[in-house]
Amino acid sequence: MSKSKKAPHLAAVEAADAPASIEPPAAGARHSVPELERYATLLRIDCVRMLAVAKSGHLDSSLSAADIVAALYYGVLRHDPERPRWPGRDRFVLSKGHAAPIQYAALARHGYFPHEDLMGLRKLDAHLQGHPDMTRTPGVEVSTGSLGQGLSMSLGIALGLRLDRIDDAHVFALMSDGDCQEGQSWEAAMAAAHFKVSNLTAIVDYNHLQTDGTTEEVMDIKDVRKKFEAFEWDAVEIDGHDMQAVVEALEWSRARERPAAIVAQTRKGCGVSLMEDTFGFHGKPPTPEQAEQAMTELEARLDEQNVALKGEQ
Amino acid sequence: MSPVLDKDPVATRMAYGDALVELGSKHDDVVALDADLAVSTQSIKFGRKFPERFFNVGTAEANMMSMACGLATTGKVPYASTFAIFATGRAYDQVRLGIAHNELRVRVCASHGGLSLGEDGASHQMIEDIALMRAMPRMQVIVPADYNQAYRAVIESYDREGPMYMRFGRPATPFVYDEVPQTLGPGVDVLREGHDISIFACGHMVWRALDAAEQLHRDEGIDAEVVNVAVIKPLASEAVLSSLARTGVAVTAEEHRLAGGLADAIRTVAAEQYPVPILSVGVDDRFGVSGTGEAVMERFGLTAAGIADTVRQALVLKPMVRHSPVLNGDD
Questions:
Q1: Largest Cα–Cα distance in chain B?
Q2: Which domains are delineated in chain A?
């Protein structure tokens, strides 16, 4: 998309882009918690920009998962953008496929495809579909978007890896409140314990808001950790915006003998105060004014994080 | 000699179980899944021989199809079996997004298709699976006619690209191929040549069509061509058109709703390229009922006599003057 075609009100949004300066980490590189937090901010900025341009999509659902996705792609996942089909890689499955923008941002910043592709989100002939599409987008392991299927798909991947004796590779499935309302997720939970997989982690981005209201109003999924425990999974509950806790939980889950669940309590829209924990933004793109306000806020946060990181060095 | 071979009938689902074992022996990447119907679908044969590569998920068909998708992304070739009703009805969305959309080499292998499963009744008699799978983008639809063809279809499915739906049946079914054919080919086989009318049939209706043709010839001197359409999608339209060009009138016969199945597939080709009268034998706008398989088939007119009656009606409509078919839209 040529710059001249973009509306003037997005100028502030565009200015924040600096993909060339963000070096993807070498495989296996470890980042400190403050560094991971900064990456999470960058991913959030990408999401706001994408949605402002696309004028369509699920921004708040992407933002609630930003810290988890940053922890995975910059910290925990063993993956290699140079070899996206490397058999030994960890797999990430976005069961909550409507949060595609946050995964696209992480993939683009790791060089799976050019960063400018993000501006094609949801547009005709662009490879970034409304929901993740493995047939079009490098780095997407499997197509998702119909809630409830991702954990089953991840279990299939985990079993395939086990058959191939690729013991180091782990499968991480990121689920939503809605995924927990779909019965199929619990079919998968039952089967994962039955087949005794040790290479599967379910992360629930429990943000308590869905299309028609709060989960408590619409269909209360209540104590998700206990549900997984009842299916004989190892399970923990954490603050999904506490980067230290997120990284520790992900590493903990990798070492389990049983399938592991991380119930991450999150806030929908986290990082953008006007939509944080606020009902009514699901599936609604930000208005130009909202996008600008969000960008101002996130850029200020990025500045703080940059200063703090410099001070550490 | 009767076109239906003088061998004891065997169900097509038996071929699924037997061929799957052969595939498992030849290919390490073949895995099988079932949903607590492994004895009925015969996938149990694979399960006994290759327990590490067999996943019985219990009565959770949605989970099974999505697991098959996941397995396929790691390079496995999953064969997922259950009854047709659950494979295509209950798990439609999982087959659609996980398997068909992703163009994965998963074989959805459905046993107990149609009415002929009998006693279990309407809840289990799947009569719209071909329609659902035909409508699904990228999905291939295979309905073998007998044990031998079913065996070949399963063996060949390993070498074909893309997602595939295969329909097998419960009842023991007469042989129409005297041995396992060398290939499934384009999937449209002329089993009996004739110039008066074409009978396009699939699955359990193929041997009935051969029976009907034999009766019509013996009693009335009608020379019917019987065409077995095992690959309903993608349909080898040229083979269909060349039969229509020979006969100028046709009957279709399937154990399926008249909407969306073989009748629609044949009529579409004919309507676009060589319009001739085509009448159909199948299930109209209603559900099945309990009864023995044979009794239910009879109730719905899915018999050799039903086909023969429809042939007589169609012959009345046969045009006196015929035009050449338009092949491939040339000229």
A1: 63
A2: 32-312 (3.40.50.970)
